[in-house]
């Protein structure tokens, strides 16, 4: 079945711990954008096995998480403890949280699995307090375009599927790409203000750990993910 993370959960989680794109790029960027989170109630939307959840909790945030993969949640509980508020839920469906329950939501590499963002963004806005923040990371639309088949329109909302083999198991994952203006329109249409768009450099030390990845990148920067900070009124 598409996006069956249960089958690759252990391999994906292990890769996520140390990889260039996750451990030295996406996760540090999300933490930088989050800033001082001490005492803030934060929902980790699509928490996976919990590495971002754990990092935010270590910084003093009051964390709740959900994921659509039961196996990922099992791994998260092993990391975070059995008493941590983790829920089996899907961002494409109504969420099991009351209105205005959170100061922040982090949606780390999750929205690009969805064709339509309208209902998911409405739900994320619903569970945020007035003035709350939604921090988003997604596949960079221009990076997706550069990797697309010849003749593909950058301006189309389109799907692509990749076969991932991790930990000896294989799953076919489907991603949805959309141009930057469509992302911005979806965010503002859901009632968010865009307060930051980021294309960050990787974390310090990345070049030393992964020298081969920077041979043709003297600036140290590359296109992979795009980051947003959004705020409710």
UniProtKB/TrEMBL annotation:
Q: Cite the InterPro entries for this sequence.
A: Methyltransf_11, SAM-dependent_MTases_sf
Q: Name one GO molecular function term.
A: methyltransferase activity
Record key words, sorted: Methyltransferase, S-adenosyl-L-methionine, Transferase
A biological process term (GO) from this entry: methylation
Superkingdom of origin:
Bacteria
- Could you tell me which residue ranges the Methyltransferase type domain spans? 43-136
Q: Which PANTHER family match?
A: METHYLTRANSFERASE, UBIQUINONE BIOSYNTHESIS O-METHYLTRANSFERASE, MITOCHONDRIAL
Give the protein's recorded name. Methyltransferase domain-containing protein
Protein source organism: Nonomuraea salmonea
